[in-house]
Amino acid sequence: MEENAHRGLTLDDVAIRANLSTRTLNRRFREQTGTTSLRWLRRSRMRKAQYLLETTTHPIERIARQVGFNSPTSFRDQFKRLVGTSPQAYRRSFQGSEQSIS
Q: What is the pTM of this model?
């Protein structure tokens, strides 16, 4: 799932790939990870977005697409909900801490 997090994955897609029913996939996924597959996928996308914000100067819109969001607005909303700040503010704070080390 992590390798394909940028794609529009559905639970049915993942279940088919794993050769499981969606119900079995949900149960096993929760047993192994302690969370739902959808929450895990969102967090995986946000970790990738954080990395891109820290290491590139790509526009937010491009990063949103790279991590699997069709809408930059939806990406910004999800990022703020999960990370606690906007993507732009996250990037600024990371760049600010990097500059103070120099």
A: 0.76
